[in-house]
Amino acid sequence: MNIKTIIGIGIVALLVFFSVGKYNSLVEQQQNVNQSWAQVENQYQRRSDLIPNLVNTVKGAADFEQQTLTNVIEARSKASSIQVSAEDLNNPQKLQQFQAAQKQLSGALSRLLVTVERYPELKANQNFRDLQVQLEGTENRIATERQRFNESVQQYNTSVQRFPNNIFAGIFGFDQKAYFEAEEGASEVPEVNF
Asked: Can you say whether residue 173 is alpha, beta or left, with left for phi > 0 and alpha for psi between -120 and 50 degrees?
């Protein structure tokens, strides 16, 4: 075996090891994005599971606008029906559809909580207060998991776009992921009228 053959085999071996390292790094980051998405879904599921209990508690403790409860139930049903899998994270439209359903549910819950403010006997109900605290905690957890998801997407997308990773990402089919984005008008302060 001559020196040129040995050098050629060495270069090919280095390229193979380098390629494997880059591929494994992209896989690891993609899995981090998928895991972050699973946490977002986990928190949405927690909220979805709490809503029937909240609605039943409210029904039992107060007699008020039936439409408010109906809106919450319908919004929960719609939000639960739209599923986004890890494969859908490359599709910004699918993620926006999911976000819109979750926003509708958040709005219905906000209206429910505002309506409840009109009923002091309901606020005094310990079960309702416990569920309200859990629901508020869940909304905070959702916001935290969305932030963590966006951070992992940012790290992944940066890696996919950097040279020479962009070459390997293109070869192996690693596409950019979509972010959670603020809804239009999210910076406006909601008006609450009694």
From this structure: left
Answer yes or no: are the C-beta atoms of 153 and 33 closer than 8 Å: yes
Q: What domains sit in the chain, N to C, each tagged with a CATH number? A: 3-172 (1.20.1440.20)
Report the alpha-carbon distance of residue 25 to residue 67 in Å, rounded.
Answer: 51
The SS3 of residue 192 is: coil
Q: How many CB atoms lie within 10 A of CB 16?
A: 10
Return d(Cα 76, Cα 21) in angstroms, integer. 44
pLDDT tens-place string over residues 37-74 = 888 887 877 777 777 777 676 666 555 555 566 666 67
Helices (H) and strands (E) in the chain, counts: 6, 0
The whole-model pTM stands at 0.57
3-state helix, strand, coil in the chain (%, to 5): 80, 0, 20
User: Which residue in 57, 79, 73 sits closest to 123, CA to CA?
Assistant: 57
Amino acid at 58: V
Size of the chain, expressed as the number of residues it contains: 194
Q: Is 40 within 8 Å of 142 (Cβ atoms)?
A: yes
The pLDDT tens digits for 88-105 are 777 777 777 777 777 777
Residue with tokens 């040279």: 163
Taking the C-alpha atoms of residue 162 and residue 190, their distance in angstroms, rounded to an integer, is 41
The answer to whether 34 and 87 are in contact (CB under 8 A) is no
